[in-house]
Amino acid sequence: MNAGTPGILLVLDGWGHAGPSEANALTAAATPYLDGLLADCPAVLAEASGTAVGLLPGTVGNSEIGHMVIGAGRPVPYDSVLVQEEISSGRMRSNATLVEVLNRLSAAGGTLHLVGLCSDGMIHADVQHLRELLRIAARFSVPAVRVHAITDGRDVADHTAAAYLGLVEGFVAEAGVGQVATVVGRGYALDKSGDLELTEKVSLALVDGKGEAIGEPQEALELTRRGDEWVPPCVVTGADGRPLGPVRDGDAVLFTNFRSDRIQQLADDLYRRLAGRGVTFLSLAQYDTEAAIPPLVHRSDAGGGLAAELAAHGVRSVRIAEAEKFEHVTYYLNGRDAAVVPVEEHVRVTGDVAPDYTARPEMNLDRVTEAVVSAAGRDDVPLVVANLANIDVVGHTGHFDATRRAAEHTDRAVEAVCHAARATGRWVLLVGDHGNAEKMLTDASAGARPYGGHTTNPVPAVLVPAPGQQVAAPAGPATLADIAPSVLALLGLAPAPRMTGRPLW
Ligand SMILES: O=C(O)[C@H](O)COP(=O)(O)O
Ligand SMILES: [Mn+2]
Ligand SMILES: [Mn+2]
What we know:
It catalyses: (2R)-2-phosphoglycerate = (2R)-3-phosphoglycerate. By secondary structure, the protein is α/β, with parallel strands linked by helices. The chain has 16 helices and 16 strands. It binds 3-phosphoglyceric acid (3PG) and manganese (II) ion (2 copies).
């Protein structure tokens, strides 16, 4: 173990590794500084997807699990896995929370409303979970089921919503119960920027049947001007011209996303609007909503990681990120623990928010960099943790050239951080949390269309040693679970007892 040297943990969001290709915006970018670090510093590729981090085999990584595992120092069974286990084992069919509500609906004649993202992107939801819930509703003879379908185009390739809606219509037919009542893009339904006007439009569709009236679900897709993400709220009407969907007194609403961060704003808004009307709310997995919504599956404990260890040793850390990734370097890195920790300082960088990130791939990176440099200059802060969001956030647009420019801005920011680190005697550990920008096209077999989603590729983990610091090249396979033990070792601390990862340097 090293004697203990202060450092900077820099998460480059969406920084995956793949060889050069026409799909790789990272190798296409001019990133001389990062190229130099990768060539000269002890580096390793770390697994950031699938079972290595606590996801189902072959599942793409995401920011939540990525930061949780970076912080926990061990794989954390993610919500998608817990839901899948509940379904595969057959336990969901007798899930006490679900059964109680379904029995009540069948006895009293209420409707079950299933609200969720309809794709198999495996980041927020899996449309197969909706299928199982429809089957279970049929087994319990729930008199009516309404599906309020949120179209994706972000975790999966754009212009795929027609196929997923087709799947959902097939599931409904197979179950013999249910109708698609609402179709709306995730840009509206899964806003997490706090833009309540977007959320309100979705709520009004569900509560009052307000929105574009359509006869068939697929008609909704013709009404978007910005792809699947921005399908405007559409309400399917019945033969009598009335919307099929509005939630009525005594109904139940079950949110089918397993990930909370983007659906919780809508869940809270609906909860408030329907208060006092005897509507039961449920969520597939546990949400961070203000409202207490009972989950069908409880989340895993991701505690006992880096944050706990730093607190136990009184090691001060400063956490820095743009608003988009702020929770990731605080809440998720701390094992989904929102407790205020006296030895932690949080810097949430705000600034101009571009409605379209392709026009501003630099985002507010200058301010993030300034905050990191300023924290690095403090003697009372042994550890600075920051997230550079650009590669991931711009990568999600599916726009190759903008993502290439995001990488070039990131390169200059990393250079500035490394200079500050050298001047203040710090090491810098750079790591991706999952892949994204190294794959901006779908597979050729699928027709090579633009792709803004995450990947299963490993991520680089690179240590830029502090001046005079001797470190050996890391050996063997690595995963994100090795990052917290590495950070602790570099700070001169032992891994926490619950960590299964090992120090890489
Ligand atoms: O919510 C999103 O923006 C994407 O679906 C997933 O991206 P993230 O895991 O990087 O947040
Ligand atoms: Mn991420
Ligand atoms: Mn992302």
